[in-house]
Amino acid sequence: MISLSKHHALDPAVDVNGFQPLARRLRRLSLRERRAEASAFLDLYYLENKGADGSQQKRTAEVDRELTRYGTYTHTPEELSFGAKVAWRNHARCIGRLYWRSLIIRDRRGVTDPDAIADEVAQHMREAFNEGKIRSVITIFAPATPNKLPAHIGADQVTRYAGHLRRDGTVIGDRANVEATRQAEAAGWSGTGGQFDVLPLPIIAADGRRVFRTLPASATHHVPLTHNAYPAFTELGLEWYAVPCMTGMILTIGGVDYPCAPFNGFYMGTEISSRNLVDPWRFDLLEVTARAFGLDPAGQDPLWRDRALTEINAAVLQSYSSAGVTLIDHHTAARDFMKFRADESASGRALHADWSWIVPPQASAATPPFHIQMHNENAVPNYYHSWIADGWEMLPFDGNVSRSRFSGHARDARRWLIRKMRKPGTFRR
Description:
Blueprint: E1 3-4, H1 21-25, H2 31-48, H3 56-70, H4 77-90, E2 104-107, H5 114-129, E3 137-140, E4 152-153, E5 163-165, E6 171-173, H6 178-186, E7 201-204, E8 210-214, E9 222-224, H7 231-234, E10 239-241, E11 245-246, E12 250-253, E13 256-258, E14 263-264, E15 267-268, H8 269-276, H9 286-292, H10 304-323, E16 327-328, H11 330-346, H12 355-358, E17 382-384, H13 405-422
Parallel strand pairs: 2-3, 15-16
Antiparallel strand pairs: 1-8, 3-14, 4-7, 5-6, 7-8, 9-10, 11-14, 12-13, 12-17
């Protein structure tokens, strides 16, 4: 079912001792810290799942014995499902967390072969697409252990468009993927040279080999972008994919990291129209599309960018609606976020949010989140990119528990001290 390109050794990324880049990305936790995160996670699990099977005390002792003996432990299917949902609930950069309870969990921890992983990713994409009615799905593969790094996906998303670098320095396609395109071509892949060539999926096996797999067309649906009022825009031949499936983030639950856990939601229109298609380091199509709308980028109108972005956004919304593919506009997404905020408050939980990511990139001040204060406590369970970028900040958050003002200050001081000790480059553990 999955076509296979030739194997490509990961020589530049593995030193003489077989060291893999994934080892640098994982959180660096001591056994004591893993125990603390496991205990905090089990407390949360039994608090929010009153009918959970078994005794919390017995399960905590079992986990503690596994940590002492192996340095890690195994989540039950119920714990894994709950942890993945809470990780989404805690992730401060996502505006669409209102639907965190509906996340579909695919437990594939026993799948380790690159071919089997590619098959599972293809099946994930088909289940997520759901004939256009996109569902939020996560597929969780093997966790990292103290003695072994699992196979994982070496890309930020399942679907990526190639960036073809030409001799004159210009790029056809996605500028963010120029290096990824070079690696795929070195492994034997060749595209059409067009603007929307889909790159193969790079999978890094447990032994460090990078192998490329091309997913079938049934796993990557695309939406042609048209505009009802501007035929010139339609003639540009633009498109975008239906399911945004993230693969570059690590899922962390109770001190256990899952480096291969592809997950998806559905697109918000401005992600495509105000960022992917027009950012200078991506497709950089703002001026091209502006001319298709009859605007002159070299003219005297200082608002030509605003007008062009609005029309691109309208085109994306129209196109996905016509194709019957789920997509949400940024105003509806902002209202959903405010509902999520109210739900968290009603449940007695603090809101974890990153203002710069939650506020939409277009018509920002016209959306409710623009006017509220937000704070990111980097609570676990969560998703993170790497230890250096954001993993070092993550800690169990107990700020939902009522306490005196002095206790609250003491907790904040303790968290500050731990993060200061963890911060890369400032203190060697």
